[in-house]
Amino acid sequence: MRYLLIGWLTFISAGCSVPLKQPAVHDFGLPASAATQGRASITVNAPTWLWDNRIRYRLLFASPSQVRFYGLDRWIASPPELLEQLLAAGGKAMDYALIVRLQDFEQQFDASDRARVMLRFSVEAYSGNKKIDAQEFNLQQTTKTPDAAGAINGFTDLAQQAAGKIQDWLAGLPDRRE
């Protein structure tokens, strides 16, 4: 009995000295160019639940109304902040003030081995105080892997796609500022 107690205490004390794994923090990668940063006026709004740095997902096949979070992976900032930074850094064609309304930003599992990332938002373009146009965007793609790494890579791709689609949309607006 005494040896069992000593063994158990040794196991507990050894377990306490093992450092806990800290969450890894992620962003959307390095901006394409920081030279234009600050030139574009961009505001990203989002519902309250999107203003934290946790990476969220849903198991549609098991519990579609439950939102879950990865424990060992986080964004370095909230998704609205990361998207705003990305759009401002790559604002070559952004001659307008933009208001982006982020509505959906999560990974969804259709099955345990199949997931996709969703990014849904709308954009309003303003010239001075005049609203020029508005556009809805709904982007999604299957993740390469059904896990946190797949979500991070998928969201990075979707954020880059979003920036490109916004710039394409702005380039097609008829009333561009000088």
Task: List key phrases describing it.
about 180 residues, alpha/beta, Rossmann fold
Produce a short descriptive summary.
The chain has 178 residues and is an alpha/beta fold. Helix content is 29%, strand content 39%.
What do these coordinates show?
The protein has 178 residues and is an alpha/beta fold. The chain has a single domain, classed as Rossmann fold. 29% of the residues lie in helices and 39% in strands. It has helices spanning 2-17, 79-89, 148-171, and strands at 24-26, 41-45, 54-59, 63-75, 97-111, 114-127, 130-142. Strands 1, 2, 3, 4, 5, 6 and 7 form a seven-stranded mixed sheet that branches. Strand 6 (114-127) and strand 7 (130-142) form a beta hairpin. The longest helix is centred in the last third of the chain and has 24 residues, at 148-171. It is globular, with a radius of gyration of 21 Å. The relative contact order is 0.16. The model is unreliable at 34-38 (pLDDT under 50).
CATH topology description: Rossmann fold
CATH secondary-structure class: Alpha Beta
Q: Architecture in CATH? A: 3-Layer(aba) Sandwich
**Structural classification:** alpha/beta
How many domains, as an integer?
1
CATH level-four homologous superfamily name: ABC-type transport auxiliary lipoprotein component
The gyration radius over C-alpha positions equals: 21 Å
Largest sheet: 7 strands, mixed
Amount of beta strand: 35-45%
Count of runs of 4 or more consecutive helical residues: 3
Terminal-residue CA separation:
85 Å
SSE string: HEEEEHEEEH
The coarse overall form would be globular
The level of helicity is 25-40%
Report the strand count. Answer: 7
Mean pLDDT over all positions? 86
Which residue ranges are poorly predicted, with pLDDT under 50 across at least 5 consecutive positions? 34-38
